[in-house]
Amino acid sequence: MAESDDMEQLLTSFKKFAVHGDTKATGKELNGKNWAKLCKDCKIVDGKTITSTDVDIVFSKVKQKTSRVITYEEFRRALEELAPKRFKGQSKDEALRSIFKLVEGREPSNVGVTKVAKTGAVDRLTDASRYTGSHKERFDESGKGKGREGREELVENTGYVGAYRNAGTYDKTKPEK
């Protein structure tokens, strides 16, 4: 029972790495970039016994000639290729179990991904209460944007020149005869 549970975790890890960074991925095939990421994130690549070059060579060896991706079965064969090299002192079965343990239950890490900056400068620039002049007109009293009325100068088609102070007073100022 434990063996099938371990294989289930291995398949789950395979699927997570297969869809990482690709919105169109189905999770059934793993591309070379994600294979290399899996090997780095799961600490299969140690820089001494296994390097990124070894990982690329094994990927090329197990995939179909014309294919650019590997299936789950090819993925297992690739791990079988790397296991004896990564765990030199162990038997083939022990090395395979050890390399499966490295991969099981793991998922892609997001080390080095840019985080949202939350500094004083950003807060100051996005604080609507500190805006002045014409920019102040784009927000209501609560600081919520007014939308179109705040961005565009809406034209009144009254027939008067814009900003004419005595609009609507023509009839009142007409001299009587």
From TrEMBL:
Residues spanning the signal sequence: none
Disordered: annotated span: 132-177
Family named by the database record: Belongs to the TPPP family.
InterPro entries: EF-hand-dom_pair, TPP/p25
Domain of life: Eukaryota
Matching SUPFAM superfamilies: EF-hand
GO BP, sorted A to Z: microtubule bundle formation; microtubule polymerization; positive regulation of protein polymerization
Compositional bias ranges of the Basic and acidic residues kind: 134-154
UniProt xrefs under Gene3D superfamilies: EF-hand
An example molecular function term from Gene Ontology annotations: tubulin binding
Protein name from the UniProt record: Tubulin polymerization-promoting protein family member 3
Alphabetically ordered keywords of this record: Cytoplasm, Cytoskeleton, Microtubule
Glycoprotein is among the record's keywords: no
Localization in the cell: Cytoplasm, Cytoskeleton
Keyword Coiled coil attributed: no
GO cellular component terms listed in the entry, alphabetical order: microtubule
One Pfam assignment: p25-alpha
